[in-house]
Specification:
about 140 residues; globular
Length: about 140
């Protein structure tokens, strides 16, 4: 039996290299999340209902709704690093993979990722927000 800190296990999963566009998008979401910390928490259904009634809302408003409601959707606080950090938390990696799958219109991957972490009652709204944001992010 090998110890957990063996050289074999240390190199088993190399760090994922991100393209500049994906890292830029992740940093955008990190900035939005930082700005949302001072704002009051909002209910996911309430936030999406407000966005549905005001069609002129921007990508920024949708990103804020996503980041303000992410904790509720995941059922626990999401861990996010500060903008500019090249490492990713599990939550950031999941969110980035979800956004990349949405941008390439890979519905199977989007459904898998959403079902793997998001409570059933929040899946449709999280998917809506992610599709809306990635559909308007010019660097994807």
């Amino acid at each position: 039996m090998l110890p957990l800190h063996s050289e074999k296990w240390a190199n088993a999963a190399p760090e994922q290299k991100l393209e500049a566009e994906a890292l830029g998008f992740l940093n955008y979401l990190r900035f939005v999340a930082m700005n949302c910390r001072a704002k009051p928490h909002t209910d996911l259904f309430e936030a999406c209902a407000l966005l549905h009634t005001e069609h002129d809302k921007t990508q920024q408003a949708h990103a804020e709704a996503l980041m303000r409601c992410l904790n509720e959707a995941l059922g626990k606080p999401a861990r996010l690093y500060a903008p500019g950090v090249t490492e990713m938390t599990f939550d950031e990696s999941w969110l980035l993979q979800l956004c990349l799958a949405s941008a390439r219109q890979d519905r199977a991957s989007v459904n898998f990722l959403v079902q793997s972490r998001v409570a059933r009652e929040h899946r449709r709204l999280i998917t809506f927000l992610v599709h809306w944001i990635t559909g308007r992010f010019s660097r994807f």
